[in-house]
Amino acid sequence: MDEESGALPPKEKFSEWYNDILWKAEIIDVRYPVKGLYVWYPHGFAIRKNAYGVLRELLDRDHQEALFPLLIPATEFMKEAEHIKGFEEEVYWVTKGGTGELDIPLALRPTSETAIYPMYALWVRSHADLPIRLYQVVNTFRYETKHTRPLIRLREITSFKEAHTVHTTWEKAEEQVESAVTLYKEFYERLCIPLIISRRPAWDKFPGADYTIAVDTIMPDGKTLQIGTVHHLGDHFSRTFNITYEDEKGEQKFAQQTCYGISERCIAALLSIHGDDHGLILPPEIAPVQVVIVPIVMGKRRDEILSYAIALETTLKEKGLRVKVDGRDIRPGAKYYYWEMRGVPLRLEIGPRDIDARVVTAVSRDGIKRTLPRDRLIEDVRLLFTAFEERLRTRAQASLDQHITRVTLIDQIQDAIEKGVAIGQWCGGLECAQQIEQQSGGSVLGTISGADETLGGKGTCVVCGSSATATLIGRAY
Amino acid sequence: MDEESGALPPKEKFSEWYNDILWKAEIIDVRYPVKGLYVWYPHGFAIRKNAYGVLRELLDRDHQEALFPLLIPATEFMKEAEHIKGFEEEVYWVTKGGTGELDIPLALRPTSETAIYPMYALWVRSHADLPIRLYQVVNTFRYETKHTRPLIRLREITSFKEAHTVHTTWEKAEEQVESAVTLYKEFYERLCIPLIISRRPAWDKFPGADYTIAVDTIMPDGKTLQIGTVHHLGDHFSRTFNITYEDEKGEQKFAQQTCYGISERCIAALLSIHGDDHGLILPPEIAPVQVVIVPIVMGKRRDEILSYAIALETTLKEKGLRVKVDGRDIRPGAKYYYWEMRGVPLRLEIGPRDIDARVVTAVSRDGIKRTLPRDRLIEDVRLLFTAFEERLRTRAQASLDQHITRVTLIDQIQDAIEKGVAIGQWCGGLECAQQIEQQSGGSVLGTISGADETLGGKGTCVVCGSSATATLIGRAY
Questions:
Q1: Same domain for B56 and B112?
Q2: Residue A475 in contact with residue A222, Cβ under 8 Å?
Q3: Which residues, other chains included, contact B253 with Cβ-Cβ below 8 Å and sequence gap of 6+?
Q4: Which of A107, B19, B138, B456 has a C-alpha 20 to 30 A away from that of B405?
Q5: How confident is the model at residue A4 (pLDDT cuts 50, 70, 90)?
Q6: Which element (helix H / strand E) includes A372?
Q7: Given CB atoms, is A297 within the 8 Å cutoff of chain B?
Q8: Which pLDDT value is given to residue B4?
Q9: Is A452 within 8 Å of chain B by CB?
Q10: What gap in Å lies between CA B226 and CA B205, rounded to an integer?
């Protein structure tokens, strides 16, 4: 928590920038003595809290929040074969309680299907009980053997929002998948983060799902980051856990399910996509401090200016803004540096001349300076916020677009993924995907649905020439 | 989630009542397939969320929320000898990751001193860094071998609010202890729960603390429930984890610490103390639904009455109340039963005659019926809430008082704890405590500070006749 911690590496050295910003902006302390486990500083925690507040607000429209246990008995966890196979290398096991061995080992949830669905089997009786739409925000665990990275590849995912729904028919579950994708789009729109939505290849879907829709964004280094997934589970789990309902005709049927999740990777994307060489840039809705007031105090009018700043803080707080006066006894430049690092969207400077002229000097985090009349400051600040968010969205979208290259020949893919991702036509075949991956060094990440008119579309496979779909190819985190 | 689940056992059969209300009011499902782990239903979760919302609001005045990992390496966990001894029988150990053994076993935190204090050792450098006041709300784990009980004795405590503070001097840490007790009093005042504050005997303090202040309440069966503790840690942990600061004179000193926690036992107390034979009774601030509107629809005016009810719901929601119209096609009596079970503080009934007379019939959860003019309903509802809360407080305090017997002779203690707790004088000596416990069958729970004028006070020990302090003796959960 040292203020004079020196400059950030430039953002184009993204990996270094990322490592540095985490502690300079007080997001995460990486010095916890277990690999892959990290500590959230209060400032990071407040960003997380606001982002998940938005997510909860959207979910609460037609979901309910619940909470299921962390520990899953091996007997339940081992029931769904495909699911286990997908996770067995990654599960932490509790084998001891006190000084003795447990009779049945307990898994730390890597995800909660096997914790939740035995309860759904008890809860679901009739079609009148459906749909069920529950979610929880919990810590989940993966015994990662790869290189771990704060907020991105973790052993304790501290903030996994997972929703689990139950429906009568496959089609209704499919509608839920679409509804979840729409919800995730809305969530990331609020975070000003642009997305690419695609359908993962069969070999890359969630273990036990019919299919997986993925929500990716592109990080500043051109690699994709998966920041949400939505799974149609069909009746795989309902058959395993015996989740059945009586339909209108009195027949017993297996329920159809979906699940979808977002982890703290949403925070990784938020920090990485908007930040610059000076630090974080936070959308006002997410910023723990939305407005910092810096009194420019010199000489005789010191007390007057400080009181004026505090009065202004009170007024803005009463209107629901998160405001802080920085009254510390350091020079204004050091304060600017401090609050820019932490991503505060708007700085208000108040000096003697501002008071005399009944104005406030407003500087947005992306450098736009204006003089605002004191009397209608609230309205103006709100307008500045809206414009600021719009600029963040536009800037982020432009950066994403810059990283995308449309390709028509397989030979173009390698160059394309040097600077980001390629979108090219792929037939869906495993062999063609392997050839694409071998030749380009990238991964076939997913097919882009026709609904996405900007990126999607039909064509012929860059390998075999058969009928094909626009496909995202790149290097993924 | 069956509506026609039959009547509750009477509350005087408290243990049966408690088990039943948990599922009839949709708080907790106890059928999860591991002993001591439970599932929060959405309604229970919403109560929990509101209660912890109040707690966070109080803490956020001068604390900051952070988040530390669940997993504590054995090497850190084993550092503080006294602390380990207190927990070694109760700790869950992760020993496997994937298919291999871990090099260093990881404890699931039973409490987070050993996770947090290695970080404090890194963060604290100078007296200027102090005080630190952080808290987190997390899941913690105890391998309970005793009989488990939902919300009260758990293997996964899902909602442990733990605060950890660091100070320069022992006296400042003591001030923090007092400030924490005041905060907890305020929290439970908001929940309308009366308290007894005492200082635990030396043998019952937190492992590694100088002393422990306990916050107890009395449950309907007369047993005490510990619903909060505050510990002065002195420099026990700062010496172990090397948390030192440089004071004004440039000398290195060990920091002084406190910690204090509240678990979901606060919810157990909330449900148990206020509920009655018909179900929960929730203070308005905590109730997920504060007002239920029941349209009394009959015959021709059905649609009109329903629209009127929905319009009323909208109006009240706009004013920030949590309101629900129950428009289900079942008889009003069934709706009353349903919402009474779930503890909704206020029911508004709307029939044809209410509409014609521009009034609403309001029935509070404790049975007080009034006719309110439609035009100033918001104000009246707010007043009803305040009066309702006051009645809850008075009723709960009266019940607590009834359970307390002041005793002057050791022979009176056994009778006193048949109906609740005894308060008698005790000198502080171990042998006298043992004699009290053997003869009465109760436990010496703590000495009541002189500051509590109602219950406290000095006198002579009921065993040895030496100078003594008022002491709480009873049976604890």
A1: yes
A2: yes
A3: B168, B244, B245, B246, B247
A4: B19
A5: low
A6: strand A369-373
A7: no
A8: 52
A9: no
A10: 13
Q: Does the beta-carbon distance from A37 to B122 stay under 8 Å?
A: no
**3-state secondary structure at position A138:** strand
Query: Taking Cα atoms as reference points, which of A273, A213, A229, A284 lies closest to residue A47?
Result: A284
B75 touching A (Cβ < 8 Å):
yes
- Beta-strand pair B421-426/B404-406: parallel
Domain count for chain B: 3
Which tens digit of pLDDT belongs to each residue from B138-169? 999 999 988 999 999 999 999 999 999 999 99
Whether residue A302 sits in one domain with residue A257: no
Question: From the list A34, A93, A108, which residue is nearest B69 (CB)?
Answer: A34
Q: How far is B248 from chain A (nearest CA, A)?
A: 19
Domain with residue B306: its CATH number is: 3.40.50.800
Q: What angle do CA B444, B446, B451 make, to 5 degrees?
A: 145
**Given the DSSP bridges, would you call strands B39-40 and B28-29 parallel, antiparallel or unpaired?**
antiparallel
Determine the Cα–Cα distance for residues A104 and A77; give it in Å rounded to an integer. 11
Mutate to test the interface with B, among A38, A64, A71 (most CBs of B within 10 A): A71
Q: Are residues A338 and A419 in the same domain?
A: no
- Partners of B151 on chain A (C-beta within 8 Å) are none
Quick check: B70 and A139 CB within 8 A?
A: yes
Q: Identify any residues that bridge with B459 across adjacent strands, giving them in sequence order.
A: B468
Integer Cα distance of B296 and B305 in angstroms: 8
Query: Could you report the per-residue pLDDT of B221-256, keeping only the tens digit for each?
Result: 999 999 999 999 999 999 999 999 999 999 999 999
B186 pLDDT more than 80: yes
**Any CB–CB contact under 8 A between A110 and chain B?**
no
Q: Are residues B105 and B210 in the same domain?
A: yes
Residues B51, B138 within the same domain: yes
Residue B88 Cα, gap to closest chain A Cα (Å): 6
**Residue A160: count of CB within 10 angstroms of its CB:** 22
Count Cβ neighbours within 10 Å for each residue of A350-373 and write b for 16 or more, e otherwise: bbbebbeeebbbbbbbeeeeeebe
- The phi, psi pair for B237, rounded to 5°, reads -80, -35
Whether residues A216 and A347 share a domain: the answer is: no
Contact B129 A1 (CB under 8 A): yes
> Chain B neighbours among A 114-153 (CB < 8 Å)?
115, 118-119, 122-123, 129, 134, 139, 141, 143, 145
Range(s) of the domain holding residue B148: 14-274
pTM: 0.96
Is position B44 within any domain?
yes
